[in-house]
């Protein structure tokens, strides 16, 4: 496998956990292998009457600690290995936060920007129908991811409910509040990135009001992460999206940029900011770098040029194993994805609980619970990293894997 394959990075991380924890190769193989994988075809009639066939996936990595949990992404390069890696990272993410879930992930190989809303609805409903035998509130609970949103989840919930013959609010999370969603879910991943990023600045004794930052990706995660950092006093000097990147040495007005993007759909052309090469943006001399777009953006090719002492992974798998080696050698603080962006699955858990109980929490309750739970995980990771003298990623992965291994041993093998 090449460095660009996220499954290769996931395997290397698990191998390091095996070395530290000392479990046998059979346990490694069990943890490395998905419990269930489903590939489906999605025939689609487009608005102009033409037909095409798309490909979809759902991977359920582990059920040892509870039902599968993980997003559904719509992207042109979605493939099985990517979904396998993401599902495995979801297992570790849920275990790190001590949630009663295993890991899962799904996707459709499609560029959502090239399809109408009605076409996306047809894609979603057919995909949901195809995977319906293996999902459900007690089996596997999908959520939004790249290229999907709360509307996608509303369609999924409705389709699954029609199949069952009654409304099943808990089949997925990230839904609109009006159909069983939770307050605070939309910004939960971004808030978690900010909570851990600000703690990282504190650990490095950097005053947030004197700090500078760069955010790669200005979508569901990056936009609100930039807003939360901005509100905490961090000067965000550069941001990017799929169309390009912008820079201002004195900082970008994030609330105004959000308004601009809402109207134009892109950060490029924001008044007062200058264009900058997206790759060059990653190497700016700032205090914190937040890769919040896609996987494999920090690699062996550019790791030596990364100047930021703190990297907070808003995206899943943005740092390859080769880049990690460089960052560890240079004593950079990498807040790993399974901790930094875990706010989304945490509040998804709260939404699942609310949906199943038909009892709804206030936004204040959600934010307080999220902060308390994430700080508990943060402190666990910091303590383990210090006690064992390992990187934060290693500490987070080992803590999570150990919980899954312990649950696996307690449940035993059947038959």
How would you describe the overall organization of this protein?
By secondary structure, the chain is of the alpha/beta class. It is 45% helix and 17% strand. The protein has a 7-stranded mixed sheet, sandwiched between helices. Helix 6 packs across helix 12. The chain is globular, with a radius of gyration of 20 Å. The model has no long low-confidence stretch (mean pLDDT 95).
Write the layout of secondary structure elements.
Elements: H1 6-21, H2 25-32, E1 36-45, E2 51-60, E3 68-75, H3 80-96, E4 102-109, H4 117-131, E5 140-144, H5 150-164, H6 188-203, E6 212-216, H7 222-231, E7 235-241, E8 244-247, H8 254-264, E9 274-276, H9 278-282, E10 288-291, E11 310-312, H10 321-329, E12 333-335, H11 337-340, H12 343-357, H13 363-388, H14 392-411
Parallel strand pairs: 3-4, 3-5, 6-7, 6-10, 10-11, 11-12
Antiparallel strand pairs: 1-2, 2-4, 7-8, 8-9
Helix pairs in contact: 1-2, 1-3, 1-14, 3-14, 4-5, 6-7, 6-12, 6-13, 12-13, 13-14
Question: Unreliable segments (pLDDT under 50, ≥5 consecutive)?
Answer: none
The residue fraction in helices comes out at: 40-55%
Structure class: alpha/beta
Largest sheet: 7 strands, mixed
Distance between the termini: 34 Å
* Element string (H = helix, E = strand): HHEEEHEHEHHEHEEHEHEEHEHHHH
Number of strand segments: 12
Mean of residue pLDDT values: 95
Instruction: Count helical runs.
Output: 14
Strand content: 15-25%
